[in-house]
Amino acid sequence: MRLYLVILCSFFIVGLADTQKTHPVPYQTKTYTFNLDLPPKQMWAQLITDNKENIHRLLKYIKSFMPAFIFELTPVSWIRKYNPRVAEEVQAIAELAQVNVDDVFWLNMMYELATFCTSIIIQDENNNIFHGRNLDWGLQNYLEPLLYNGDFYRNGKLLFRANVVAGAIGFLTAEKPGAFAISINQRNDRDVNLHPDRHPIKDFWGLMKNFYQIFENHRTGVMWNARLVLENATTFEEAFNQLASTPIIAPVYYILSGVKPNQGVVLEMDRDSVFGVAQLDADNGIWYLVQTNYDRDLVDPKNDRRRIPAEERIDAIGRENITPQNLVSNVLSLDPNLNKQTLETIIMSAQGDYLNTTCWRWENSQYSILTL
User: Fold this and answer.
1) Tell me, what's the pLDDT at 1?
2) Do the beta carbons of residue 322 and residue 302 sit within 8 Å?
3) Nearest to residue 186, comparing CAs of 112, 246, 121, 244?
4) Cβ neighbour number for residue 167 with a 10 Å cutoff
5) Residue among 121, 118, 117, 99 at smallest CA distance from 108
6) What are phi and psi of 136, to 5 degrees?
7) Which end of the chain is more exposed for a tag (fewer CB within 10 A), N or C?
8) Which is higher by pLDDT, 35 or 305?
9) What CA dihedral angle connects 183, 193, 112 and 229, to 10 degrees?
10) Which SS3 state, helix, strand or coil, does residue 267 take?
11) For the stretch 257-289, what's the b/e string if a residue is b when 16 or more beta carbons lie within 10 angstroms of its beta carbon?
12) What domains lie within the chain, and their CATH numbers?
C-alpha cells in the first residue's frame, strides 16, 4: 500500500490545456504490412526503424512528467512475470528503437493513463453497418507522427486491419473482415462519472487502482486485450464474449460492431465485469449508437457535450440518407466532436472490409501538462 501512496503523491495528470486556437490540416496516413507468423522483432522492424526518432521524442516527453522510480519498478524480469508474450514484444521494440524495455512497457499503458474519444455505430436503412471514431488524445506534437494503419497477416491471409501507434503492441481501433470492428473509449470509475465536477482526488484514486491491477494482479491492458480478441475471435459473438469476460486494468467502453443487422453494442466495462450494455435495435428506432466518455444512463457534463451534438446531427441526416462519407463530413469532422485533442477520424466496416483514416495536424498548436 505504501508504494501506491507514494505514486499518488508523486504523479497525476489533470489534463492538457490548449493555449492557441487553430484549424487542423487533414492528411492520409501510411499503411504498413505485418506478418504475425514472424518473431516480434522481425514483424515490427520496418515500423519501428522508420519511427525511432519520434519514439525517442515521445518517451522523453512522457518521462518528463512521470517519476523516474516508476520505470525502475518494471525491469525485464518483472515484465516477463507480468506477461511473457508482452515482454517478448516490448523487448523487441525496445531493441529496435534503442530504448529501455521499461520505457516501452509504459508506452503500452497509454490507455491506462489517459485517453478520450467519440465512437459511433450506424445501421442504415439497407442494414449496412459502419463504425466511425475520433481518437482524442492531445499530445499532437508527439503522437501524431506515430500514427499509421496496419494490415496484419497470418498464414499468408489478411487477419485484421488496425490503426497503429508506433511502439504500441495493442490497438484502440481495428476491424476483422467479415467478423467485427472494435474501438475503445476511455471510461472513468463509476463514482467519477456520477460527479463530473469531481475533485481531482477521485481521478487520483482511479489511477492508483490501475497501478494496483498492474503490479498486484498482473491484469490485461485494454489495448492488448483488443489485440488478443482480433487474433482469436472469429465472430461478433465470440468477440463480445471475450471482451465481456476478461478482467482488465482500467474501466473501458468497448464499442463493437458486426456484419449482421443489430450487431452493434457499447460494452460499459468495470475492471472485473460488465457494468452495462447498449445495443442496436433498428426495428425499434435504435439504428445508431454514439459513445463518448460517460455512462449512458447519465447526462453528459455541461463542459463536454460531444454526444448530444453528434446525435442531433445524425438525426438531422436521417437513416435513409446516412453514409460513411457524411458521417465523417457532417458529424465527426465538426466541432465539438472534432476538437483540439483529436488526432484521427476513422471510418471502418467489417461488413464492407475497410478501415480508412484521416489524420489531423493542428498547426501552431501548443499544449501544456497541468500537474499536482
Assistant:
1) 45
2) no
3) 112
4) 26
5) 99
6) -105, 120
7) N
8) 35
9) -30
10) strand
11) bbbeebbbbbbbbbbeeebeebebebeeeebbb
12) 2-12+27-364 (3.60.60.10)
Neighbours of 121 (CB within 10 A): 27
* pLDDT greater than 90 at residue 148: yes
Q: 190 vs 195, 197, 250, CA distance in Å?
A: 9, 13, 12
Reduced to 3 states, what is the DSSP secondary structure of residue 218? coil
| Residue 370: strand pairing partners | 15
The residue type of 199 is: H
* Distance separating alpha carbons of residues 301 and 295, to the nearest angstrom: 11
Inter-helix orientation angle 222-232/236-245, to 10°: 150
Could you count the other beta carbons within 10 Å of the beta carbon of residue 66? 18
Peptide bond into 336 cis (omega under 30): yes
Percent of the chain with pLDDT over 90: 73
The whole-angstrom separation of Cα 127 and Cα 360 is 30
Question: For 273-283, what is each residue's pLDDT tens digit?
Answer: 999 999 999 99
Q: And the C-alpha cell for 71?
A: 520505470
Which residues, in sequence order, are CB contacts of 141 under 8 Å at separation 6+?
365, 367
Helices and strands in the chain: count of H runs, count of E runs: 16, 16
With beta carbons less than 8 A apart as the criterion, state whether 181 and 349 touch: yes
Distance CA 247, CA 209 (A): 13
- Pairing type for strands 24-28 and 354-362 reads antiparallel
pTM for this predicted structure: 0.90
